[in-house]
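User: Structure tokens for both sequences below?

Assistant:
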Amino acid sequence: MTDDIPELTDEDLASAIPARLRKRLISGDIRSGDDIAALRRFVRLTQEQFAQAMGISVHTLRNWEQGRRTPEGPAIALLRIAAKHPRIIRENLVSAA
């Protein structure tokens, strides 16, 4: 029955990312600040919330999203986890608060 399938909300649509992009992010292939911003929206967190959940400063996140800096090492690992398991990042925000 299609009655059991909820309608997509505007928020759902705004946070959606193409499967190809998500797969690329899961593999750690982050090509631009736009990728990081799309991932943050996919996880449905503000810059402040995402930075807190990731254990980084908002300044660092903004530098990534604006392409002034690129994540390295452990940060890429965390971004891969965020792409594969967004709920874990959201839960980390709750436990960090």
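Moving on to the next sequence.
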Amino acid sequence: MDYTKTHLTQAFINLDNLTHNMILLQKLVGNRPLWPAIKANAYGHDAEIIGRHLTRLGYAPLCVAHIDEAVELIEKGLDTRFIVLSPTLPENSRYFVQYGLEPVVCTLDQVSTLAEVASKPVTVHLKVDTGMGRVGIQPDQVVRFLEECARFPQITVRSMMSHFPRADESDKSFSRHQIERFSQVVEKTKAQIPIYHFANSAAIFDLPQAHFDAARPGISIYGLKPSLTMTNPEVNDLRPVLSWKTRITFLKEAPEGIGLSYGHAYHTERPSLIASIPLGYGDGMSRLLSNRLEMLVQGVRCRQVGRICMDQCLLDVTDLRGKVVIGDEVVIIGKQGDEEVTADELAETLGTINYEIVTNIAKRVPRITVGGTSLMNASWDRAT
């Protein structure tokens, strides 16, 4: 059975748009390497599909959040380096060695535990907290920390990094303060550290002084804006990589005043033609969007009505009566005719960010690749 055909709700991954976005990001950072983030199943886009294409484009290392994300890709045959961004527990240190992963570290316990289990050299990346307030050592502790790391010959500190909490805001004052703090540490440690990296997607566009020696793009890889308040107009050149579609599986006439779906949270306001589609919160469509979103059928915006169920929901297609048929395509995110529904639109309606919309698309939704024949042509080594 071909699961990609029987499961009618599908996400389409446009690899040519992915290539376009990488070209744009590369232009912004010049000849600095990009270390793309493919954590959380590549922000819902499918880490294997995205990871393989980025590797074909010459990008390495790739950034993941957890050990298992890297190991799954390695066991699927993806041959590249991985930086693991999030801390783990000491008992998991052996997996970094076993699979050749590069952890981000910020405590001496992490370093010493890695050294204890290391049967071969281990490359690590030092995280400095310049204002994110999450993980990382304080800037005034870095010099001493590196001195302690030097006691472990098995450990090589390949880079130093930090992270922005507010680079996507229009007011960049706090972010510039962070860059200043990080730059002070750079001056004190540049004889010991070969690579410094700080910029996320927002900083790649709006804070060129944060580019340093490498950059770690995330959401922008996938053609989505870090926020709607970015100041660099080139952010508008990003092309969404993902479109999300399904099909109409049932049509029925409903009289005026009838309740639809669980709880009868919606009653028809006129004699209505109602379409059922196989899309629900089990596929990653938030139940909180019930009665609050529109989808595209034959290039027309159609209102979703009634509570979103686990596996199905309803569309009011009354305005297409006589035209719409079972099997018609329904666009959840993407373009159809002259209309478009974006992840940003859904995020604004839900009161969240586009990251959450795409990352929440369930794994049971098949990811189907589109394009991918065009590859970048650059003369420098992105794996530096």
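User: Anything stand out in the second?

Assistant: The first strand starts at residue 10 and ends at 14.
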